Amino acid sequence: MSSPAGTGRATPRSAGLRIVKIAGVGVVIVLALVALLTALRTELPRSPGVMSDSLGPENGELVDDYLARAAGSLDGDGDDDDGDSDSASASDGGRDSDGNGDAANGDAANGDAANGDAANGDVDADAPRWALITAGWAWTVPEAAGVVRELPRVSGLYVQVPVDGVAMPVTGVTLAEPVAGEAGREPVFDRGLRNVVERLDGVDPAGPGVPSPPDADRAAATNALTVSRLRSGAPAIVGLLARGTPAQLRAVAEQPWVRAVEALPADAVWERFAVRPLQPQQVDAASPLPDDAPVPPT
Hints:
By secondary structure, the protein is an alpha+beta fold. It has helices at 12-43, 63-72, 102-105, 108-115, 141-147, 186-200, 216-231, 246-253; strands spanning 53-55, 129-139, 153-159, 171-174, 237-244, 258-263, 273-275.
């Protein structure tokens, strides 16, 4: 007896169904691979931005050489690249002897608004630029505000309480512009000093769970002394991070209580440069300060 017609042979309809199933499985596999690759791509860590500019003296640089270099940065287009920025990022639990803090890195919103035309590469010799203003001595809030009264922006403040024979910490904070109703920058600088007090007050120099270094007690003592002096109103502002045109910055540099003004090129971008403030006690070279005297009591 013969078998029914078509038994054991694929019909066009069944072959078509198999093709559809295979295609469907292929689509699912492709979509899964796409989803996996997308997830891997979005989770890859981003490399940090490279800091190609810096403000302040290089480690060990002669002070006279730095002052001349800073003055030269205000001439022409200010295209002065001193190169070595990596050494500016040292920080130790608020004891930031190189001065690189929040004011050096800030926040992106601050920089995006301030850099203006520099972002699109259209820069001229009179364009505003970032600059480090170095105090001739530790300033009070009114003195610091008077120095930068004519500048359009001040975004960073550097604080150090000078003590002979003690390497006191330099701490930087980012500043906001005056809020509505404030006539000048004195309230802004006062808030910046309060931020420094909050940062240093009760700070453990070693950090939680970290063995204390040999100088941990001394670091805690210098932090406590800084807090005490700031609360008493002692002069402590040793540098300001500001923005202005070369002409405006030259006018600031001409003031007798200003030790130096160093400007970056106009295309330098906020958050992409380091800051090493020159300390008032650094007279001959930008070297570590003597640290062999007892820390005064608070």
